[in-house]
Amino acid sequence: MIQLYYWPTPNGHKITMFLEEAGLDYTIHPVNISAGDQFRAEFLAFSPNNRMPAIIDRAPADGGEAVTVFESGAILLYLAEKTGRFLPTDLRGRKTVTEWLFWQMGGLGPMAGQNHHFGVYAPETIPYAINRYVNETNRLYGVMDRRLAGRPFLAGDDYSIADMAAYPWVVPWKRQQQNLDDFANLRRWFDSIRERPATLRAYAKGEPFSAQPAVTDEGKKILFGQTAASVARA
């Protein structure tokens, strides 16, 4: 049984996508990031960066004590290795999947996240910041579009954790001020993943939590006003 500490954000959706694809037994423990659940001591004990998602695997492959994992990319790698799925075992195939997984973790996620912040949540409109991250998101979409020319998935012929990592960050393309129809290969890839039964199930799992009230001003302070000192006081 996997215990998943989750909220329906792009990083949260990555993990439910994998769990649904692999058919693993799991229980969702909601972490309402706008209410400050990520600062609870019991959560920080295994997710020290006060971010979700995180998991506790009560039945690890070695049969030992429960294993905790934080950071969405590390969780995807852990689950892929646990199940032997969505990560090739050959040297070159594994290398390619991990390249594109790390590309998402270091590029698409952070840049699209800043796009969301300055375009939607920032208390003041800063044109330079908005343009900076809209343009960088656009560049990254172009990287994916070129990569997907002539291949169905980011790492090649097979669906992998690299695709699961990237897809949720493309879902809010309108919020990111992008036009998916400008990227024919990316659009084809996006539509193929959106229609997968496991993707539909994964996103349905988030619907009860997505129905929560919109982020309040107090929630924005919790999400975006963190310092080392404020986290220590939480």
UniProtKB/TrEMBL annotation:
Stretches assigned to the GST N-terminal domain: 1-87
CDD domains: GST_C_YfcG_like, GST_N_Ure2p_like
Pfam families found in the cross-reference section: GST_C, GST_N
Source organism of this protein record: Aliidongia dinghuensis
Name of the protein in question: Thiol:disulfide oxidoreductase
Domain GST C-terminal span(s) in chain numbering: 90-214
Classification via InterPro entries: Glutathione-S-Trfase_C-like, Glutathione-S-Trfase_C_sf, Glutathione_S-Trfase, Glutathione_S-Trfase_N, GST_C, Thioredoxin-like_sf
Recorded family membership: Belongs to the GST superfamily.
SUPFAM superfamilies (alphabetical): GST C-terminal domain-like, Thioredoxin-like
Residue ranges of coiled coil: none
Gene3D superfamilies cross-referenced by the UniProt entry: 1.20.1050.10, Glutaredoxin
